[in-house]
UniProtKB/TrEMBL annotation:
<dbReference type="Pfam" id="PF13568">
    <property type="entry name" value="OMP_b-brl_2"/>
</dbReference>
<keyword id="KW-0732">Signal</keyword>
<feature type="domain" description="Outer membrane protein beta-barrel">
    <location>
        <begin position="76"/>
        <end position="203"/>
    </location>
</feature>
<protein>
    <recommendedName>
        <fullName>Outer membrane protein beta-barrel domain-containing protein</fullName>
    </recommendedName>
</protein>
<feature type="signal peptide">
    <location>
        <begin position="1"/>
        <end position="19"/>
    </location>
</feature>
<dbReference type="InterPro" id="IPR025665">
    <property type="entry name" value="Beta-barrel_OMP_2"/>
</dbReference>
Amino acid sequence: MKKYFLLAIILLCTMNSQAQIVNERNKERIKQTIKEGFEDVKEAIKQNNSLPDEHEQWDTYVVPKVGLNVSNMPGLKGDPKLGPVLGVLVEMFITKNLAMGVEVEYTQQGTSGVYGGSGKGPYSYSLQYFNTSYLVRWYPRRFSRWSLYTGLKTSQLLSSNVRLKDEAKTNMKDKTRNGDFFIPLGMSYEWQKWQIDMRYCISMLRLRKGDTNSEPSLGAARNNMFQVTIGYRFQVL
């Protein structure tokens, strides 16, 4: 038993000595491999943050997008309301710095926490729209991730409802203007094929149709909204 124990100790010592020799021989190689790996990571980060590709004239993109709409209805003294945004943008570059596009989207807008003239409330308004936007986008520099845009946005009302707390909703479509016009002001940031978009939309029309002020009422309300979306750019031409 002692003989086997002694042999085991000798074997372990031999293996340890060989490992030390191997480690000494490979020490510089291991250090070099780590250094090269670190340089590769730095180069990858540098490439990802390098200047984007320059857009060429007639480049055409399709951009599905999704995001959130923060809306309010000034004139009703309510609170902002969150709603979804779903859409698709088709955009073509007229020059290397200038693009024109058409966008269709679905938005849910409204406001909450509204009290009527009699003090009754709170009311929550919810409006759904199908929108079409005609946009002009400008890149300040030849190689730029940032762009600015504006244009004209038209909206077609899909539904208009108001709900008093703990009560059933009331259909307001017959009291709401069927369409709306907006001036969008926005900016976008592109990273690889992703596009983050932020815009503020200025409404041109009041929402109320007719002169009725019976509660619940739209009063002198207009649409007011800020959108944040993220899209994925597919180049088709």
